[in-house]
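Q&A log
Question type: sequence-to-structure
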Amino acid sequence: MSRVTKEVTPIALEEVKRQFDDWRRSRAKLERIPSKLLQLAVVAARHHGVHRASTVLRVEFNRLKREVAGVPRSALRDQRPAAGFVEVRVPAPVPSPECLVELERPDGGRMRVRGLAPEHLAALSRSFWGCQS
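Response status: OK
Response body:
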């Protein structure tokens, strides 16, 4: 190990690192970290800081941070906000600009309507044209 690493990394952290290295050499593929070894990592993180311990021990930072806080991963799933009712307020309709409608029949009859709501225009037009449908 280089001299710089020994100066930066205290002896207690070096001992935990050695135990992690021994475990990594002998472990089966994708085997989880043994709880005793993880507890040593937690103690080291509390003493030296989570970032430093996770870097030296090569343990995932967020996992070590959760372990130090004592929060299991399953508890984090339960903290998601539940889906609920969301009220959406629709603004009041804006009146359309004033409109002018002029109707003229073949017999010369005329009608001029100003400011009529569009939904009433069809009924008024049918009435004026003489359609009874």
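Response note: Residues 100-129 form one domain.
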